[in-house]
Amino acid sequence: MSTRVILVCFFMATLALAQDNASVLDTNGNPLKRGEEYYIKPAITDNGGRFTLINRNNSCPLYVGLENTDLPDGYAVTFTPFAMEDDVVKINRDFKVSFSAFTTCVQSTQWRVGQNDTSIGRRLIITGQDGSREWGNYFKIVETQLEGIYNIKWCPTEVCPTCRFICGTAGAFSENGKILLALDGSVLPVEFHKK
User: Fold this and answer.
1) pLDDT at 7
2) Residue 188 CB: number of other CB atoms within 10 A?
3) Which string of b and e fits 2-11 if b means at least 16 CB within 10 Å?
């Protein structure tokens, strides 16, 4: 193997490692910290407001969705990185996210991937523990081409490196005047605001 090929491979591996260790930044340019509260909002206006809990069908569990307006409503969230040594949320690394809210549902406000809803062909993001399949509660943040703008993805490969997931990136889904967060469709770029 030539020296040039070895150098290119080394450079690409170093670049990938640096990207995986980069922190996710809030709108002030500061890293998202474990356990601190943030609002998540669409990076593109007119796509809804801050993320919130949605009562989709007048029963529990509650769904993750967006306010219908850009008004400062919605609930703050906290992040818990999978890697215990991480005090900040890092690009392409698994984490759990929970709303900082109390509900009438006797369950966690932690996000998780729901079953495929065959009527709409998408997997909705709901709240609650994923029981024996804890990997359903882990998400990751990936960069877009714009600095400070991110996509939320479900693909918990740190939690279960040998599993074969049908990964998906989160987007908005409108139903009966409600905006729900779902996988397997359009993508919703987001930004993070410190509370």
Assistant:
1) 36
2) 23
3) eeeeeeeeee
